[in-house]
Each structure stands twice: as C-alpha cells, then as structure tokens.
C-alpha cells in the first residue's frame, strides 16, 4: 500500500517557496514548515510561499517541537550554504528520524572540505537509519552531464564548464555582493578575500566522483566583469556606466591524478539585452566535444532536480550519501509515493 510522501519545508525563502509549489504538484503532503523571521512565523505556508491558497500549515520557528511531533518522511532543507552553519539544522532532523534532502552546497560533496563534520553527520544519520543528501543544479547540469560526455572520449586533456546567472534576479544583498558599479581594481581587491570557490569545488568533486578521477589540487581565482557599454537593470533601478563592474566570475581549476584538468567558471553579472544565462561544457581532447544549454534557468532547475531526487533519497542507504552513490536521476511524471 503506497501513500504520498510527507515532507517538512525547512527554510521558506526563495528556494523553499518554489520547492513547496513543486512538491505539491507531485502530491507531496507538506506537514510542517520552518522559518525564522516574525514576518513569516505564525502565517500559513501557502501565503508565505505566495501560492495564493491556504495549506493549513502554520510556519513555525520552533524546529525542535515540530520535528519531534510530525510524522514526516523527509525534511527539504533550503536555509544556508556552509556546513558550519547548517550542521545544527541537519542534526536536529536526523536525530528526529527524518531523511534530509537539501540544497546546501557544501554537503553536496563534503569529504575534502569538511571531512570531520561530514563523518559526524554520516554517523548520526546511520545511527537513526536515515539519509542525508544534497541535490540542486549541480547534480546533473554541472556534474553528471559533463561526466557522461567524458564517457565518449578517446583522450581527455581538460573539461571546462561555464555557467552564468543574472545578477539582478535576486535581492539587493546579492547586488551588493557583486559590487555592481564599482571601479574594477577596487572591486577586485575587495573580492579577493570573499570568495572561496566552495560551490564550484564541490560540483567539480562530484563530477570527478561520477567520472572516476581523483582531484589532487585546485586553484581559485576571481575575475571582475566590466561593462563595455552603459547597462541598465530595471529590476534594481540601477545603471552601470561603461568601464565599471557589472559582476564577477569565480573560476576553480583542479588537477587530477589522471592528468585531466577540471575547471568551472561561475559568473553572476548584469546581462546586456542580447545576453542570456548559459550552462556550457567543453571537453578538450580527442575529439573535442561540447554540451550546453542557452537561456539556462538555474533557479528552476535547482528545485526541479531536487524534487526528482526525492524517491532516490528515501530509498538510499542510511548515512551521508552523495549523488554519485544514488541511482541515475530520473524524471518523475507522477505523484511521489512511498511504500512505508
Ligand atoms: N544547490 C543549488 O543548486 C542551490 C541553488 C540556490 C540556492 N541554494 C541554497 O539554498 C539556500 C537557500 O536559498 P534561498 O535563495 O532560498 O535563501 P533565502 O531566500 O534567504 O531563504 C532562506 C530561508 O532559511 C530560513 N532560515 C535562515 N536561518 C534560519 C534559522 N536559523 N532557522 C530557521 N530558518 C532559517 C529563512 O527564514 P526567514 O526568511 O524567516 O529569515 C528563509 O526562510 C542557499 O543558502 C543555498 O545554500 C542551492
């Protein structure tokens, strides 16, 4: 006898709201929602997520009480990016016997960046018989797709990715982070200590795991992107004069024991009217190859990829499981059901 999957939405922000909508489309029962700000706590999830309908799920800031009382199969966690801040949230879910599927980037492949924390969470998940896993845009678009293309080559020298996103599709905090309108030299000096390449690093390590190659070193560099003509962002109400910063790119280059270079450039910037976000991958070798998307909708793909992973995570062994250990991702046309 199957029944719909039951989930808690942990983090009702930009991503948590979109995930709520997409999970409901797959008939997932949302049995709880967690946020923090007084503007959200106590309100109905349907209103907070902008669904235009009541879900009869009140958003709470008492995660401990909710997770202890609800009978959910999993928590879908979209709160923050680094394990240092996310580990307490994961511990809480795992200790209450919930599987965790998260967008958090560092847990996507934590074994080299945060091995001790990863091992501790792995143990906790095993002890409670549940799985901790991450998915998102990296899973297929930045890891499995280029790794699969590698499986067609005679010789590979380097695998290069370039993924871009619109610098004005998020809020003003992101716009500040991109140093829009700054003098290039000043922005570069400021950015030098701010970027650590974590998202690209964990994506490339997943690509390496899918491809069966071993990273042995990496470099991170930041490049500011300068407007060549005046650029206007309607959304931010801002014009960037020619010669000033319109965003930046973070490039992670890895070496591997097999002599294959892996590189991923992620660039967020104000796009010119004739530009759109792309996700491009090149294999330099024999033969040279390319796979890529134009008009790349990274925001939607982040959430749809995660939703399609729900059955894989519920069926996965207990512990911290990275996506290279899950089955090949599949499109899920019907409702997400579980056989309890
Ligand atoms: N893997 C990927 O492809 C991918 C792509 C995009 C984003 N992400 C990840 O998703 C995360 C969320 O992104 P977003 O755009 O949705 O961010 P966001 O809009 O800022 O939402 C974050 C949510 O987490 C809640 N929150 C923050 N601290 C909390 C705490 N201590 N206790 C309970 N709730 C807390 C916030 O609550 P309040 O609003 O009430 O403060 C908000 O609901 C990012 O940090 C990133 O790691 C991953």
Secondary structure layout:
Layout (H helix, E strand, L loop, with lengths): L2 E2 L1 E5 L3 H12 L3 E6 L10 H4 L10 E2 L2 H7 L4 E4 L5 H13 L3 E4 L12 H13 L3 E4 L2 H14 L4 E12 L5 H6 L6 H8 L6 H14 L3 E12 L4 E3 L4 E3 L4 E12 L4 E9 L9 E8 L2 E5 L4 H11 L1 H6 L3 E2 L16 E2 L2
Parallel strand pairs: 2-3, 2-5, 3-4, 5-6, 6-7, 7-16, 8-13
Antiparallel strand pairs: 1-17, 8-14, 9-12, 10-11, 12-13, 14-15
The distinct bound ligands, ions and cofactors come out as: NADP nicotinamide-adenine-dinucleotide phosphate
Number of strands: 17
Globally, the shape reads globular
Mean pLDDT: 96
Decide which structural class fits the backbone. alpha/beta
Give the percentage of residues in beta strands.
Answer: 25-35%
Helical fraction: 25-40%
User: Could you name the ranges where pLDDT drops below 50 across 5 or more consecutive residues?
Assistant: none
Counted by DSSP, the helix tally is 11
Strand order of the largest sheet: 4-3-2-5-6-7-16
What is the N-to-C order of secondary-structure elements (H for helix, E for strand)? EEHEHEHEHEHEHEHHHEEEEEEEHHEE
Rg is 21 Å
Query: How far apart are the first and last residues' alpha carbons, in Å?
Result: 8 Å
The largest pleated sheet is described as: 7 strands, parallel
């Amino acid at each position: 006898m199957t029944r719909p999957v039951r989930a808690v939405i942990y983090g009702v922000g930009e991503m948590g709201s979109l995930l709520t909508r997409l999970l409901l489309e797959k008939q997932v029962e949302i049995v709880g929602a967690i946020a923090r700000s007084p503007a959200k706590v106590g309100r109905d999830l349907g209103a907070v997520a902008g669904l235009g309908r009541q879900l009869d799920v009140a958003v709470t800031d008492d995660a401990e009480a909710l997770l202890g009382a609800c009978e959910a199969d999993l928590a879908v966690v979209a709160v923050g990016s680094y394990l240092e801040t996310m580990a307490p949230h994961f511990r809480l879910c795992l200790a209450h016997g919930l599987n965790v599927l998260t967008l958090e980037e560092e847990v996507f492949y934590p074994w080299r960046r945060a091995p001790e924390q990863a091992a501790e969470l792995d143990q906790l998940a095993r002890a409670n018989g549940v799985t901790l896993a991450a998915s998102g845009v990296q899973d297929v678009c930045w890891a499995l797709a280029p790794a699969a293309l590698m499986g067609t080559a005679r010789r590979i020298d380097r695998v290069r990715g370039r993924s871009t996103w619109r610098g004005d599709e998020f809020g003003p905090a992101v716009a500040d982070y991109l140093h829009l309108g700054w003098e290039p030299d000043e922005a570069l000096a400021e950015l030098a200590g701010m970027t650590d390449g974590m998202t690209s690093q964990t994506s490339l390590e997943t690509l390496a795991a899918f491809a069966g190659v071993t990273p042995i070193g990496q470099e991170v560099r930041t490049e500011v992107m300068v407007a060549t003509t005046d650029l206007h962002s309607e959304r931010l109400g801002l014009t960037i004069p020619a010669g000033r910063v319109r965003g930046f790119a973070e490039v992670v280059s890895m070496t591997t024991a097999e002599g294959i270079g892996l590189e991923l450039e992620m660039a967020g910037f104000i796009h010119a009217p004739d530009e759109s976000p792309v996700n491009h991958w090149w294999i330099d070798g024999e033969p040279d190859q390319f796979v890529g998307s134009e008009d790349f909708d990274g925001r939607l793909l982040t959430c749809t990829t995660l939703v399609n992973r729900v059955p894989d995570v519920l069926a996965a062994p207990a512990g911290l499981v990275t996506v290279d250990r899950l089955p090949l991702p599949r499109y899920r046309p019907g409702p997400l059901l579980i056989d309890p």
